[in-house]
Amino acid sequence: MTAADAALVQMLPALAFQAMLVLARIGGAVMLLPGLGEAALPSMVRAAVAVAFTALLFLLLPGLPAAPSGVFGAFAMLAAELATGVWIGWLARLVVLSLSMGGEVIAAMLGLTNVLVPDAALGPATPALGQLFGIAAAALVLASGLYAIPLAALVQSYHLVPAGTFLPAADGTRVVVEAVGASFALAVRIGGPFLLASIVWQIGLGLASRLVPQVPIYFVSLPGQILGGFALLAGLAAALSAFWIGQIHDGFSLLPGLH
C-alpha cells in the first residue's frame, strides 16, 4: 500500500460522515419535494433519487464539517441536516398543495364532497376531485420544469444554514406560517369562479323553491349543478393551469436561499 492509499484510507471515515450529512438533508427534502417525493412513487425510486443527488453534490458543496468526537454530536448533526431538508421540502410541498385544496373547494361547490378517497397528503377522507388535482399538480410541476427551483433552493440552503447546524426556530416557524397562509389564499383564488357560480346557483334555487314549493328543488337541481360545474371546469381548466403555474413559479422563487 502506497502512502497515497494509506492517506485515502484514513480519510474514508470523515468522507463517509460528510456524505451522510449531505444525504440526510437531501433525503429529507426528497421525501416531500413536489414531483420527486410523491407518495405514489415507490420508496426505492425516491431513495435512488436522493442518493443520486448526494453523489452529484457531495464534491461541490464547500465547508462540510468534520466528524465530531462523540456519537451524540454526530447524531445531533445528522438530525439538524434532516430537519433542514424536511423544512425546505415541506415549504415547497405547501405551495403545491394549493391546487389540491383548490380541488376540494371546487368539489364542495359541485356537490361532490360525498365521493371520498384516501390521500396520503390530504387525509383518508379526501374528495376524488381533490386527489385528481393533486395528481395534476405533480404532472404540471414535472412537465413545466419547476421542480428545478426547489432543488436550487436546496443547494443554496447550505449558505443559509451551514451543514451540521440547526436552522433558527423563530425564522423557520415564521416562514412556514406564511407559506400555509399563501397556500390557502391561492386555493381560494383557484376555486373563486366556482364559488361565485355556486352563490348565483343557490340564489336561483332559493327563488325557485319559493315560486314552486311543491317541487323537491335539491334533488332536481343536483344533476344540473354537477354537469354545469364540470362544464365550467372544462372551460377554465387551461386558464387555471396557466395561472397556477405562474403562481407556483413565484412561490418557489421565495424559498429560503433563493432571495
Keywords summarizing the entry:
8 helices, elongated, 259 residues, two-stranded antiparallel ribbon, mainly alpha
Description of the structure:
The chain is mainly alpha-helical and 259 residues long. It is built from eight helices and two strands; from the N terminus they run αααββααααα. It has helices spanning 3-30, 43-57, 71-110, 128-144, 148-160, 169-190, 192-211, 217-253; strands at 116-119, 123-127. A two-stranded antiparallel ribbon has the order 1-2. Strand 1 and strand 2 form a beta hairpin. Helix 3 packs across helix 4.
Round the Cα radius of gyration to an integer and report it: 24 Å
Characterize the main sheet. Answer: 2 strands, antiparallel
Give the proportion of residues in helices: over 70%
Taking strands numbered 1, 2, ... along the chain, how are they ordered across the largest sheet? 1-2
Q: Write down the oligomeric state.
A: single chain
Number of helices: 8
Number of domains: 1
Given as residue ranges, the uncertain stretches (5+ residues, pLDDT < 50) are none
